[in-house]
């Protein structure tokens, strides 16, 4: 797979923190929601952008996506040349590692770009430009998934964007570790994390989420999953939840981006 050679990678080096299985919730959602588009592509390509100091997330992405689209190939892209050199021994059929950044140096437009824990260190004002640059690299049915999670992947929030712009926000958690839904606020992606203040939609959403969680307390006797499902069902009366109970059972809820988008 030949690559375009950029004059200089775009972006800055991240901390590189990574752990095995850290992105399992995001990967599981991508395989379920984007699998049909990957299968429709003639030569589906996925990018793990900014995989970090170790290649685990790229290796896992290939394995998980191939359960949904056996022909998919993955390119791990890192802006730090030393990380690329360290990852290359893990390359195999369908998986390569390449030096680069937000210019996404691949030989064809990818059907998927996953950028997890990459924009955390950037300013909020920089996010829109990065999103635009990455969206411009997508194939026509492509998807950009950008978000943040904790160190072991128990709590995760991501935005899904098509070539036209942002579509949805997904909140995902290990239910047994959750005290209340607003615990996920600390993992909001950069576009939203500073907007969790009164007067902003995401703040109102998390407030209503906590209220619905409290009202569903009687369901806790049936387990955290049943309490979460009831909570999301009640929440969907006032917020545009776009997924259904099959995803809620996984500790997820997806909401239309327009309902949570920052004001001003």
Automatic annotation (TrEMBL):
<feature type="region of interest" description="Disordered">
    <location>
        <begin position="1"/>
        <end position="20"/>
    </location>
</feature>
<dbReference type="GO" id="GO:0032259">
    <property type="term" value="P:methylation"/>
</dbReference>
<keyword id="KW-0808">Transferase</keyword>
<dbReference type="GO" id="GO:0008168">
    <property type="term" value="F:methyltransferase activity"/>
</dbReference>
<keyword id="KW-0489">Methyltransferase</keyword>
<protein>
    <submittedName>
        <fullName>Class I SAM-dependent methyltransferase</fullName>
        <ecNumber>2.1.-.-</ecNumber>
    </submittedName>
</protein>
<dbReference type="InterPro" id="IPR029063">
    <property type="entry name" value="SAM-dependent_MTases_sf"/>
</dbReference>
